[in-house]
Write a structure and sequence with these properties.
The complex is a heterodimer of chains A (about 550) and B (about 375). Chain A is an alpha+beta fold and about 550 residues long. Chain A is built from eleven helices and 23 strands. In chain A, strand 8 and strand 9 form a beta hairpin. In chain A, helix 3 packs antiparallel against helix 4. The radius of gyration of chain A is 42 Å and the shape is elongated. Chain B folds into three domains: about 90 residues, Methyltransferase, Methionine Synthase (B12-binding Domains), Chain A, domain 1 (Orthogonal Bundle), CATH 1.10.1240.10; about 130 residues, 3-Layer(aba) Sandwich (Rossmann fold), CATH 3.40.50.280; about 120 residues. The chains are: A alpha+beta (about 550), B alpha/beta (about 375). Chains A and B meet through helix 3, helix 4, helix 6 and helix 11 of A and helix 2, helix 4, helix 6, helix 11 and helix 12 of B.
């Protein structure tokens, strides 16, 4: 179309001539300022009700409005093309491109974008869903805590898929763990006594049957417990979807929509199942983790080092660090077996099974049990070691162990010690004034040779003295400021010399801290330390955190 | 809580407790605390206005060389036992509240007492508290969070050298959806390092921490994941990584350099030599953290602190200078490290007259 040559606006030369241009592939309307279709051309079948010389129908009021704006704007931004306007008419979506004629009438080329628009909308929706699934995966994969996982599932579903969502986990006994979320509100989690068969499809979903289509569920039949507290509008539509787990269902997801909104479309129900698959997998993983953890904890309970405290007027303190920061147990161990009465010696054991990790820890458990059983003959250390040696040789393992036995008895304010080493580093005694002595007990390790022998050495602790039992993880700690150096026995003795008169737990803490600093971030073997201390004061013991009555300290 | 009427009472309690713990008299210490509770001093006040300041004073006294390491350890052990005794006192009966908090120290952080005090205060205020204690390896912390589903983690660190480890712990907690409140001297007096490392909140003391936790800390947004902290973009220059990985070598080189230039060191005993090596290792470690946080102040503050400790132990602070020089020569190709060492040297020159004694000579 050429630009008009005159301002008359009636010359037929300037009119569009179909004979010259052919039939345009778009609907073309010439609209005057009043909103009347002055002329129509091209694909006008797309515009039912639009007729030449008649005002535009109601549905095209957006076009009439745009016409007035274009008509008033004689020269658009220095002659640049005018922007198109979007609108709907008769179930189609149009992009209308205007040109303004000199007389103020506007020629509109209406391009039918119905298909493209639908595709764009589908794309946007798909992108939204993909984004949601990606975010949901991020959230769901981050926690191995099943409460958190259920809360996240309910919150995500309420935020994107519905107005409110409820996650029902498989019943624990007679109670049903229920997690409820309303869009924009806090998630609540409760254990309730309820029958899942009150909700159509729920009992089935919890047993892993396929989901019940939304249209089958009457929203008025829902039990009160299902609808979250903050959900005030009546429920209009419901979807019940199983949360598929690893083999067994991880629960069910119930989506609720207010009756003011349209129900769930088939696409939405399908998408809800996609989400449920991810949530179910995450929930199963969390539950599996919790189960494994509880098994591990139960099995490991007896392998963990005991918490030591004062027994029969003697202070005991222990410190332990497994070789790997991922583990809690290892091949080092210690125990204090209290004497039956205050006038019987208590037996302290500290040892090191060759190897580390769980395998070594399992053997420490056997050794600890065996030694506990041998308590009645604890006075004869060599005999105890021979019996333990026999038990280890007969057992189905090739590991050996080194250990220290100490019989500890307090009389008056002195603590008498009988110490026996079975292939283990000799114990050290630090006196109240800081002198450090090595207790020269020697003996063969257990679990390797048919015969074992050992020499028991006696010593006494005066108030403020401490006897330190330790495993070679301490002296063989590699590190230091220059790197790669052994901590060594000399350094341990020097460190201990500063610990004269300290409470036992402070001695243990000091040694552990020094070795940890020595190691820096480097790897290490299992470490264990036990301090046996003769208390310094003569007051009545009132506080040791585990008060079992008052001992004359 | 602390009225003017009670204030003299607290003063007396503090000085009594100070005498008891430095005299290693555990039973007297417990008596003082338990009697204060019996007389109606609130448990929180006993923890924060009596035990905490006494413990801080113990730390300062040790730093100034007025207490031996044994006395310091004994005082801390006694404080721990006194807190345990206090926890069993009838005045220490919290109203249940329902929220659950995990309190932990970062790995290799040995100063558990501030965290312990916070744990007790939170318990008093009705939280369910899991106190994991000193030096908690990050994998243990995360396992614990998976199992308990805590509302928040209160993470304590007193030594700046643990900041990179604290960063790992913070990121790991947030990755499982648990917000982190950071506290302790390591994070700076204004919490700047807590912000730098992306902690969700920071508190200067136990009361502020308890308030902040009660206000609620929004959990991290897991949906979008988290990019590397903006403030840590400098880490891409690899200076931190290279310095930390070369730590042992740097210490050896600097030590050799000192031995060449200060013949007096030839007469050092093995422990003295080791003490010097430890001092150098400490300098390198702090330089590493200063590079991690890109904070010149962190390194200068450390040098200032070390100078003060050396002076308190009758070692001339200027003895640090040759170590910094040797380190500077070794790291001359590292622009950020060079800048930090220059600042520290400048500070040292302004603060103290020079002498020819290398660090550790007093050991």
């Amino acid at each position: 179309m050429g630009s008009p040559k005159t301002e008359t606006g009636t010359s037929t030369k300037e009119r569009f001539d179909p004979a010259e241009w052919g039939r345009p592939p778009y609907a073309v309307l010439v609209v005057d300022r009043a909103g009347t279709a002055v002329r129509t051309e091209g694909e006008t079948t797309l515009l039912p009700g639009v007729e030449q010389g008649v005002p535009l129908p109601e549905g095209l009021s957006w076009l009439a409005g745009a016409t007035a704006a274009v008509a008033d704007d004689a020269v658009h931004q220095g002659g640049s093309p005018r922007p198109a306007v979007d609108g709907e008419f008769a179930g189609r979506r149009f992009e209308a491109h205007p040109t303004r004629r000199a007389d103020g009438e506007v020629v509109w080329w209406l391009v039918d974008h119905t298909a493209r628009y639908a595709a764009e909308e589908a794309l946007t929706a798909e992108r939204e869903r993909t984004r949601f699934l990606a975010e949901a995966s991020n959230v769901l994969l981050s926690s191995l805590n099943s409460e958190r996982c259920m809360a996240a599932t309910a919150r995500l579903a309420a935020g994107f898929l519905a107005d409110a969502a409820v996650v029902v986990a498989p019943a624990a006994g007679r109670r049903l763990p229920v997690t409820r979320a309303v869009q924009g509100q806090d998630v609540t989690q409760d254990m309730i006594v309820a029958d899942p068969s009150d909700v159509p499809g729920l009992a089935e979903a919890l047993r892993g049957f396929p989901p019940v289509p939304s249209r089958w569920i009457d929203p008025t039949s829902l039990p009160e417990w299902l609808v979250p507290d903050g959900f005030d509008t009546p429920v209009g539509s419901v979807v019940v979807t199983p949360l598929p787990g690893h083999g067994v269902p991880a629960g069910a997801l119930i989506l609720l929509r207010a009756d003011t909104r349209s129900g769930f479309s088939e696409t939405e129900e399908t998408f809800a199942r996609l989400f449920a698959a991810r949530a179910g997998a995450a929930l199963s993983a969390a539950r599996l983790y919790a189960e494994q953890h509880s098994i591990t904890r139960t099995l490991m309970r007896d392998l963990l080092p005991p918490r030591l405290h004062r027994v029969h007027g003697v202070e005991f303190a222990g410190g332990y660090r497994p070789s790997s920061s991922h583990e809690r147990v290892g091949g080092d161990f210690y125990d204090v077996h209290p004497g039956p009465t205050a006038s019987d010696p208590s037996l302290v054991v500290l040892g090191d099974v060759c190897g580390k990790g769980l395998d070594a820890a399992v053997l420490t458990g056997k050794i600890r049990n065996t030694l506990q059983a041998l308590m009645p003959m604890a006075d004869d250390h060599e005999r105890v070691l021979q019996l333990l040696n026999g038990a280890l040789l007969n057992a189905d393992n090739t590991r050996f162990a080194t250990l220290i036995l100490a019989s500890v008895l307090r009389t008056e304010n002195q603590v008498h010690l009988r110490l026996t080493s079975a292939g283990h580093p000799a114990p050290l005694v630090v006196r109240d004034d800081g002198r450090v002595e090595e207790v020269a007990t020697r003996g063969s390790l257990v679990g390797a040779l048919d015969q074992v022998s050992a020499r028991t050495v006696e010593t006494s602790l005066l108030p403020g003295d401490t006897c330190l039992l330790y495993t070679d993880g301490i002296t063989e700690a590699r590190g230091g400021p220059l790197g790669g150096e052994l901590f060594g026995e000399e350094r341990l003795k020097r460190a201990l010399a500063e610990c004269g008169g300290m409470p036992g737990d402070a001695v243990v803490e000091h040694i552990r801290m020094l070795t940890a600093q020595w190691l820096g971030d480097g790897g290490h073997d299992d470490l264990a330390v036990v301090a046996i201390t003769a208390p310094r004061t003569t007051h009545l013991s009132a506080v040791d955190g585990h008060t079992r009555g008052r001992y004359t300290a | 809580m602390t009225t003017t009427v009670e204030a003299p009472g607290l003063d007396t309690l503090r000085s009594d407790l100070w005498t008891a713990v430095t005299g290693r008299d555990e039973y007297r210490a417990a008596d003082i605390v338990l009697r204060a509770l019996d007389a109606g001093t609130p448990a929180e006040s006993v923890l924060l206005d009596v035990i905490a300041p006494v413990q801080a004073r113990v730390g300062h006294a040790w730093q100034a060389g007025r207490l031996t390491v044994a006395q310091e350890h004994a005082a801390t052990a006694i404080a721990e036992r006194v807190i345990a005794a206090l926890a069993h006192h009838p005045a220490h009966r919290p109203a249940p509240y329902g929220g659950r908090i995990t309190v932990a120290c970062v790995d290799q952080e040995w100063h558990a007492l501030p965290a312990r005090l916070l744990a007790e205060v939170l318990t008093l205020r009705g939280w369910r508290v899991d106190f994991l204690g000193a030096q908690v390896p990050t994998p243990h912390l995360v396992t614990h969070l998976h199992n308990t589903g805590a509302d928040a983690v209160a993470l304590s660190s007193s030594i700046a050298t643990r900041l990179p480890t604290a960063h790992t712990a913070i990121t790991a907690c947030q990755a499982v959806g648990v917000p982190v409140l950071a506290g302790g001297a390591a994070f700076g007096p204004d919490g700047r390092y807590a912000r730098l490392l992306g902690a969700d909140a920071w508190a200067p003391d136990a009361r502020a921490a308890a308030r902040r936790l009660a206000d609620g800390i929004p959990p991290p947004d897991l949906a979008v994941g988290r990019p590397v902290e903006e403030g840590l973009a400098h880490l891409t220059d690899q200076e931190y990584t290279l310095v930390v990985r070369a730590r042992a070598r740097l210490v050896r080189v600097v030590l050799a350099d000192l031995e060449r230039n200060y013949p007096a060191m030839a007469a050092y005993s093995a422990p003295q030599r080791e003490r010097t090596a430890e001092d150098i290792a400490h300098i390198v470690e702090f330089l590493g953290v200063a590079l991690y946080t890109d904070s010149d102040a962190l390194f200068t503050d450390f040098i200032r602190w070390t100078a003060a400790v050396l002076t308190a132990r009758k070692v001339p602070a200027a003895s640090l200078r040759p170590a910094l020089d040797a380190l500077g020569a070794e790291l001359k190709d590292f622009p950020r490290a060079t800048r930090m060492l220059d600042r520290a040297r400048l500070h040292l020159d302004e603060a103290v007259p020079t002498t020819d004694q290398p660090p550790g000579a007093s050991a």
